[in-house]
Amino acid sequence: MARRPMGGEEGGEDAVEEKEGEILTPEEQQAAAEKKKKRNQKKRARAKKKKAAAKALVWEKAATLSCGRESRLVSKGNLGKGELLWGTNEYYLSVLYTSHCGTHCGACYAEMGASKRWSCPVCKSFSLCEKCDKAEVKEWHEHECGLFCGVPVGMRQGDTDYLRFVCRFFAICCHGAPPASLPGSRLLSPTPELDEVFKLRGRGKSRTDIRFLDCLSTNEELQSEDFRSWCSNFAQLFERHVKFPAGYTVSDLADLLMRIRTNGLGFPCSDKHGTLGWSLDLYASFLDHSCSPNCEVTMDDGGKLLVRTLTDIQDGSPLLISYVDVESRTPKERRDHLFELYRFRCSCERCESGK
Predict the structure, then answer these.
(1) Closest Cα partner for 184 from 85, 284, 301, 281?
(2) Average pLDDT, whole number, for the chain?
(3) In whole angstroms, what is the distance from residue 286 CA to residue 313 CA?
(4) What does the alpha-carbon distance between residue 172 and residue 170 come to, in Å, rounded to a whole number?
(5) What residues does the SET domain cover (predicted)?
(6) Which of these, 70, 84, 186, 213, is most buried using a 10 Å CB contact count?
(7) Is the pLDDT at 127 greater than 50, yes or no?
(8) pLDDT band at residue 189 under the 50/70/90 scheme
């Protein structure tokens, strides 16, 4: 989940100005060094002031968007149990788990069963139900399919969740948003009221139009060495076989992989299958966790992501979901799982009481 912007510091030191061919005396060198030091101090002070001003503007703007302390989404007004907070299939990126790619539609995520359907004969990792079997959907899928099949066979074996997510992201960066029936159809045009906030929360030099991904935390300093190494190796191997979007680097892709893990939301569907896959959502990825949540993320029959209230919620209260199946795990198991994936130790009231 997104917590804090991971903005980088403005760096680089000015070189000491010297006239070409001129040799400075020790006194002149010391004076020049002092002058350089003062310039750098002023530059750092300006950068710090600029960063503070940007942060203040972010939170001032966020206050009108139901964002509260530490990026938590809070309620504006009293809410009743069962209220729909929002629903979207436009402003999020999502993929099915590998095990469901052949049994569920890649557009609406409905179980296909024995109904007529289309399966990609090339990548064999994307299927469409009869309702979503449209020429424009299959034509756009060719972009991500080409990326998927461009990597070595070894990368396409076993769990391909991360690979398929990256392929869809790159396809959007290079070829534009997919048809409206596919998740991610509006990622190139975020809502106007959030555009300014997300630009400021990001790194300030976004390399693609999908700015909201830059706003999501990588938690890089908290990730395990093994996972950071895996992200770096994946990104380097991917670059050897796939053309990157303009301006996108191996480091950017490694950051994206960490953002996926830190902010990924499972979308639960039915008791029969449980969670079918995971996503990054323009809004729901900013919901905080509690083992006693007052909201839940669900999905309707059309593949639309929904957020509903589970309890009555008072005005100004944080909107909280559970990142883990609470009922099937002990407090220790929940804490271990949350730390492994999201890198925080849960200290909610339920965990503290040992329930």
Answers:
(1) 281
(2) 79
(3) 18
(4) 5
(5) 120-324
(6) 213
(7) yes
(8) low
Interstrand relation of 265-270 and 274-281 (parallel, antiparallel or unpaired): antiparallel
Secondary element (H or E) of residue 86 = strand 84-88
Alpha helices (runs of H) in 86-134, residue ranges in sequence order: none
Question: Which residues is 307 bridged to in the sheet?
Answer: 86, 297
Scanning the structure block, which residue is given the tokens 């069963």? 113
Q: Which two tokens stand for residue 251?
A: 């480091």
Query: 3-state class of 298 per DSSP?
Result: strand
In a 13 Å sphere around the CA of 36, the CA atoms on its Cβ side amount to 13
Identify residue 336 by its one-letter amino acid code.
D
Which tens digits make up the pLDDT trace of 4-23? 333 333 344 343 344 445 67
Q: Which of 277, 252, 268 is nearest to 322 (CA)?
A: 268
**Beta carbons within 10 angstroms of residue 108's beta carbon:** 21
Domain 66-83+283-352 has CATH 3.10.50.40: no
Per-residue pLDDT of 320-354, as tens digits, reads 888 887 877 888 888 888 888 877 778 888 888 87
Contacts of 322 (CB under 8 A, 6+ apart): 289, 290, 291, 293, 296
The domain ranges of the chain are 33-64, 66-83+283-352, 92-263
